[in-house]
Amino acid sequence: MVGILDFTPAIVLLPFVSFLVALSVGDRLPKGGALAGIAATGGSLALSIGTVLAVAGGETYTATIYTWAEGLDAVDLTFGVLIDPLSAMMLLIVTLVAFLVHVFSLGYMNDEDETGLARYYAGLGLFTASMLGFVVADNLLMAFMFFELVGLCSYLLIGFHFREPGPPSAAKKAFLVTRFGDYFFLVGVVAVFATFGTASFVGSESFPALAEAALRGEASVATFGFAPGTWFTIVGLLILGGVIGKSAQYPLHTWLPDAMEGPTPVSALIHAATMVAAGVYLVARMYGFYAISPTALAIIAFVGGFTALFAATMGLVKREIKQVLAYSTISQYGYMMLALGGGGYVAATFHLMTHAFFKALLFLGAGSVIIAMHHNEDMWDMGGLRSKMPVTYYTFLSGSLALAGIFPFAGFWSKDEVLYETLLHGLDGDPILLAAYAMGLLAVFFTGLYTFRMVFLTFHGEPRSGTAKDPHGVRWNVKFPLAVLGVLAAVAGFVNMVPVADVTGLEIDFLHKWLEHGFEGLTVEHYGTLLHDFPAYGAAGVELSPLLPGAVSLGLALAGAVVAHRLYNVPEPVEHTDRLGGIKTVLYNNYYQDEYQVWIANGLTRPAARVANKFDGGVVDGVVNGVSGVSLFTGDRVRRIQTGVVSNYAVLLTLGLTALILAFGLAGGWFA
Amino acid sequence: MTTKPELNLGSHLVPGLAAAALFVVMAATILSASFPEPQGFAEGANVTASIGYAMFNLELGDIPGESFLVGFITIAITLDVALDGAVHLATRDDDGEGSADALLADGGRELKRTLFGGEE
Amino acid sequence: MVPPEYYLLLSAAVFCIGLFGILTRRNALLFLMSVELMLNAANINLVAFSFVWGNVTGQTFGLFTMALAAAEVAVGIGIILVLYRNFDGVDVTDATTMRW
Fold first, then answer.
1. Chains touching A (3+ CB pairs < 8 Å)
2. DSSP for residue C91
3. What is the pLDDT of residues A88-138, one digit of tens each?
4. Other Cβ atoms within 10 Å of A634 Cβ, number
5. How far is CA C22 from the centre of its chain?
6. By the 8 A CB rule, do A187 and A240 touch?
7. Closest to A671 (Cβ–Cβ): which among B15, B18, B28?
8. Of A86, A113, A393, B81, whose CB neighbour count within 10 A is largest?
9. Sign of the CA dihedral running A336, A337, A342, A343
């Protein structure tokens, strides 16, 4: 009996087919390949819903689709799929957002008479296929390959308007910065293979299971001279390099704001909901491996908390609406990393889900505003759009309330759980977690502030330019996705209302229960056991009710909203941030991180490259040329034997004969 | 004034040392080798007649030996060929009047004819 | 009975004298004479061994080598004539065009 889960490869292949269709005949199709994309993602969405229902019934699925390298006495390299609650949930999120973005693109790209649509829809199709392939990957190498593929698609789509100077440069920057992180990821993948002989995520022979067994002393793996714990931390940190690059954490966050040069639906799909989620999803997928390494978890938490605060401060002073949202994305992924590092696996996945919905919503809403403003993104030219674009306004408001974390919208529940879990485990006596919690908490205030600054400047007040007075209208293909996501941003939080469950004793933490079943080593209980045993989270048995931290974070979010209301919800707002003076310059220039990275490249990489080039040209080429030089020189000298004088040849003959007879005589004992 | 002939010694004789070395080696080999007692020929045996009979594959000679009829014929042909080859290499078929070689190699007849030919 | 070593030594000596001539002589005709010496040294060797084994094969073969030497000299004289024509002299050390 063929179950729905056997159709998992179809989920990945349908968008790939739409990519091929758009690439080959897209120019001749009426909407440039859009309908193929919508049909494909719709089909994938239907299959994903079926998958989720099947997994809800308790099924899980893993299969090896294709063995592309079979090692004789070494590792096997395979492509396979893994369907468990985590991947099923992610499949649903990705296909839903992809479907809505495809519909939205009809309004953003087709209706705006963009050219090169076939290329656009081909890129979207390939991206969707790659992301879905990444989600269902059952081993680290396959995950890495799809990780790189989504990076490629990001490059292609950011640089969509390649005839202008900005987008190609931004595309290159995105690709290079993420590639820098992926280099460490690749080294980490090789290290995993070398250490465990397998890179599989699932099963008793998976590398997280082997690592755990090694640390408990039940098994032994190759650790190259390090203690097992140290080595696993090193490998985890190597893989974290790729995660930090892809999820735009400090210091590899510099590409994401520039990536806003791409079309807004691309920003919504790739740089808000899915591709940047890949890093966090990877850590969640191999959480059994990270949970046994306290150092790695502490680093993840600290980086996440720091990034959350760092990016939130930069979002305060931006003028363009998409830039504010880009820094907001960086900041919110910081929260997810904070949760993972702090031991809140459910909290991280919960925030991943809610963030995907409300951030995609916010980007699509921004896209609607941009259409209306004839592609002018500067918020100081907007204003008063509330009355003219009601659907956009209310959905955007729903997303903003979710982002800021205001009760009862989705972001409140997830962000609150993130901070609660971190605080709970930090109170066990972990100062790094407490520091990270503090940074995350402070970022809540800034989040509320910049979010509502954005809302008020864009939609409230008096219109500040002619375009704002008479905005371009948007059609159903823009409003429909906004409406769907607006509803989700409002209600998605109800799947895991932990504070309510704690207080009333009702079993309504559905997401927690959802992640409880699945494969043996990939459940929440198993991770809980690991977290208890290795980094000792929760070992001290600190009891803390979720109500108090929840109230604190809600209070900070509301405080930020109120400050924004006082400053910006006036008919004629001014740039209050100018009063910050020099601080504003630093923030506006992104703490000079871009210049710093360019300086590193010019100051460190370029001289190193020059030295390496000289070594290659001088030593390596010198050896090769030297060998040939020796050959040429000897040849030049030896050929002078051929003098042309016959007597010389006779001399050589005689000498040779004498030597030969002498040799044979001595060897044969003639003279003895 | 005549001078006695001088032995032409000089550095060009150095390669000859190779020949001397070869002689030394061969002498050492010969002297250290042991040879069987020479059997010699029977008293009054006609050696040349035996050689002659051996040339024609007739075994009428006193002293035994191998037959060399084929070799005999081959050598005859070879000598023939060598004679013809030498004659061919010696003929000059490229030059006519006015060649310096011809001038010097024909006993002066051509020169004489050129200088005094009109008068004879 | 003369022991065969003496004949062999004589043959080796004559051969090496001929070889000395090849190595040191510059005149092509003298070169050719030295070659003749070497051939005759081989002949002495053949005859000596014919005496050792009591067999006329060696002497018969010696006759053949003599005939061969004559043929070779005939060809050699022809080559010297061509050498003279092309290099204006019979000095073997002048003909050095086939060199590096």
1. B, C
2. B
3. 999 999 999 999 999 999 888 887 777 888 899 999 999 999 999 999 999
4. 10
5. 9
6. no
7. B28
8. A86
9. positive
Average pLDDT over every residue of A252-256? 91
What pLDDT score was predicted for residue A595?
87
Count of Cβ atoms closer than 10 Å to residue A429 Cβ = 12
A510 close contact with B: CB closer than 8 A: no
Which tokens sit at A144?
């890495």
A45 or C100, higher pLDDT: A45
* Of residues B36, B75, B89, nearest to C67 (C-beta): B75
Q: Residue A160: what pLDDT? A: 92
DSSP lists the bridge partners of residue A54 as: none
Give which of A249, A308, A291 is closest to A436, Cα–Cα. A308
Task: Tell me which chain C residue has its CA closest to the CA of residue B9.
Answer: C24
Q: How far is C55 from chain A (nearest CA, A)?
A: 27
Q: Which residue of B has its CA nearest to C72?
A: B82
Question: Using CB atoms within 10 A of its CB, is residue A168 exposed (0-12), middle (13-18) or buried (19+)?
Answer: middle
**Residue matched to tokens 């009109």:** B118
Q: List the 22-61 stretch of B: residues with Cβ below 8 A of A.
A: 22, 25-26, 28-29, 32-33
Give me the pLDDT at residue B96, please: 53
Query: Quick one: DSSP state of residue A473?
Result: P
Gap between the Cα atoms of A558 and A551, Å rounded: 10
What ipTM score was computed for the predicted complex, to two decimals? 0.92
CB-nearest partner of B18 from A658, A662, A665: A658
pLDDT of residue A248 exceeding 50, the answer is yes
Residue A107 has what pLDDT? 82
Q: Does A646 touch chain C (CB under 8 A)?
A: yes
Contact A87, A3 (CB under 8 A): no
How are the residues of chain C apportioned to helix, strand and coil, as percentages rounded to the nearest 5? 80, 0, 20
State the CB neighbour count (10 A cutoff) for residue A664: 11
User: Which residue type does A322 have?
Assistant: K
Tens digits of per-residue pLDDT, A25-77?
Answer: 888 888 778 888 999 999 999 999 999 998 888 888 888 888 888 877 778 88
Please name every residue paired with A82 in a beta bridge, in sequence order, or none if there are none: A62
Neighbors of chain C by Cβ distance (3+ pairs < 8 Å): A, B
The tokens describing A669, both together, are 């004992």
Query: If you average pLDDT over residues B37-54, what whole number do you get?
Result: 87
Residue pointed to by tokens 């050719």: C32
Question: Would you give the distance in Å from CA A165 to the centre of its chain?
Answer: 26
Indicate the residue type of A337.
M
Tokens of residue A64, six digits: 């090896």
- Burial class, A73, CB count within 10 angstroms (exposed 0-12 / middle 13-18 / buried 19+): exposed
Is residue A131 a contact partner of residue A94, using CB atoms and an 8 Å limit? yes
pTM above 0.90, yes or no: no
More confident residue, A295 or B102: A295
Q: Kindly state the tokens that stand for A38.
A: 């919508």
Which residues of chain C make contact with A637, given a CB cutoff of 8 A? none
Nearest to B71 among C17, C23, C64 (CB): C64
Is A294's pLDDT higher than 60? yes
Task: Give tens-digit pLDDT for A154-196.
Answer: 999 999 999 989 999 999 999 999 999 999 999 999 999 988 8
Name the residue type at position C60. T
Residue A91's closest CA among A54, A152, A47?
A: A47
Condensed to tens digits (0 to 9), the pLDDT of residues A163-174 reads 989 999 999 999
pLDDT of residue A1: 47
**Mean pLDDT throughout A289-297?**
90
What does the alpha-carbon distance between residue A553 and residue A404 come to, in Å, rounded to a whole number? 10
CA of C78, closest CA in chain B: separation in Å? Answer: 5
**Per-residue CA distances from A217 to A197, A203, A289, A447 (Å):** 18, 19, 16, 45
CA distance A490 to A148: 33
